[in-house]
Design brief:
This protein has about 300 residues and is mainly alpha-helical. It is built from twelve helices and no strands.
């Protein structure tokens, strides 16, 4: 899902990093460390410090959950390769075919912004993501994710009321510096909360993926097949990416409304930044989703055969 075209410098830089031999967590940790250095070396406003995605993503424990997920993924990948190397003949070919079917079920469905539905109500999103998660048959629940998403929309609803109130108040006083400062602070607040919300929603999504991986690996009897889980996780990833796109549009609409008196060179960079981080957030979620494949592969194997004891 590309909210920003891949030609965008910021988006291109992130994808270039991902094409190296770095893991996603290394890329994000490097970005966070650069932001920490920048905020230490530069004299910045408090509002500026609130808009650093890498710092916020780490604050919401996104990095620690991502690193843990990467570890589980690597361990599972090693186990899968070891098992494949230990097999031969028809047994090997049968397992390879089953793993191929799993990969097909695991692939993300294609979608574009034109196909996106209208913004869901809070209860609709919570119901959809909860129903999808229940199909995984793991003990963890998505309440934290749903709460983060719903909090963001509630904040938007509240902030959209403020410009109207400010406009009415402005009619009672002369146009001047005070009114301009109110509007300026308003769009800065909206931009800062938008970046924070995107970082939180992404961190919560990756936390769910991490917990799902751990529960799949350490769960006892499987009540659902690895292929069924693959399809469900694929659907969940698409829902999350669409939600990020929808949320970014809501925030930019909010910015446009609050910044009606702002010049384009003030407002446009904030809008672009929100779309860019939403695009990057969707990429991070999709990359984290891919880390689940080796976990589901080992789950499939364990379900059909006993692994040799270590």
């Amino acid at each position: 899902m590309d909210v920003i075209a891949e030609g965008d410098p910021g988006f291109k830089r992130t994808k270039d990093l991902m094409h190296r031999n770095s893991t996603l967590s290394q890329v994000l940790r490097e970005a966070k460390e650069k932001e920490e250095q920048w905020t230490t070396n530069e004299v910045t406003m408090e509002t500026d410090k609130k808009t650093h995605y890498g710092l916020l993503f780490d604050e919401f424990q996104g990095l620690s959950h991502l690193e843990a997920l990467e570890m589980l993924s690597r361990e599972s990948e090693v186990k899968v390769k070891s098992i494949l190397n230990s097999l031969s003949g028809e047994e090997l070919e049968t397992l390879k075919l089953e793993l191929e079917h799993l990969k097909e079920a695991f692939s993300l469905a294609e979608f574009s912004e034109e196909e996106e539905e209208e913004k869901k109500e809070d209860d609709d999103f919570t119901k959809e993501i909860t129903e999808l998660f229940s199909q995984l048959h793991v003990s963890s629940k998505p309440e934290k994710l749903a709460r983060a998403r719903n909090t963001a929309y509630e904040w938007i609803r509240t902030s959209l009321e403020k410009p109207l109130e400010e406009k009415e108040e402005g009619e009672k006083q002369l146009e001047g510096e005070t009114t301009e400062q109110i509007n300026k602070n308003s769009i800065e607040d909206i931009h800062a909360f938008a970046i924070r919300s995107l970082a939180e929603l992404t961190a919560c999504s990756i936390e769910l993926f991490h917990k799902t991986a751990a529960l799949v690996l350490h769960g006892r009897k499987q009540e659902v097949t690895a292929i069924e889980r693959s399809r469900t996780l694929s659907q969940m990833t698409v829902v999350l990416c669409k939600e990020l796109s929808s949320l970014s549009k809501e925030f930019t609409t909010c910015l446009t409304t609050a910044g009606v008196r702002e010049k384009a060179d003030v407002l446009n960079p904030l809008i672009t930044a929100v779309f860019l981080e939403a695009s990057n957030s969707a990429s991070y979620i999709q990359d984290a989703f891919q880390l689940l494949l080796p976990v589901l592969e080992i789950s499939l194997i364990e379900n059909k055969t006993e692994l040799p004891e270590a």
